[in-house]
Amino acid sequence: MCASLLLSSASAAIAAKQNPNATVFLGTYEDIPFGIAGWLSEGCEATKSTMKLTVSNSSGEGNFQVQRRTSKDALWLDLGTGITRLNGQGTYTDSLSTTVGYEYRIVIIKPLWANGSPKGAVYCD
């Protein structure tokens, strides 16, 4: 029964589409456990050749990086833009060159010695 619940939850996820006229909400994060699993934002499908992914952190410490996938069935891969440190309240934006139709998302990981769990929201535009 647990497997069917996991499968239905995974298949229900639909990527948001980048909107040239508005900022798109990709989710909120808080109480992230230590370790490499971290928190994954919803994907944002590129509709133009550039995209801004914004992390608005209200408290806590963590690291974030950008991932992308080339299709709905493809694996998410690190984009290679590096890891950015979240430390307390602040807004962090990655401006990306994108491929139309590809999906992009943010991964947030809480390091072992973090000063509180990061808490905030992620957007694309």
Describe this structure in words.
The structure is a single chain. The chain has 125 residues and is mainly beta. It has one helix and eleven strands, in the order αβββββββββββ. The model is unreliable at 1-12 (pLDDT under 50). It has one helix spanning 2-12, and strands spanning 16-17, 24-29, 39-40, 44-45, 50-59, 61-69, 77-78, 84-87, 90-97, 103-109, 119-124. Strands 1, 3, 4, 6, 7, 8 and 10 form a seven-stranded mixed beta sheet that branches. A four-stranded antiparallel beta sheet has the order 2-11-5-9, with no helix packed on it.
Chart the SSEs and their pairings.
Elements: H1 2-12, E1 16-17, E2 24-29, E3 39-40, E4 44-45, E5 50-59, E6 61-69, E7 77-78, E8 84-87, E9 90-97, E10 103-109, E11 119-124
Parallel strand pairs: 1-4
Antiparallel strand pairs: 2-11, 3-10, 4-10, 5-9, 5-11, 6-7, 6-8, 6-10
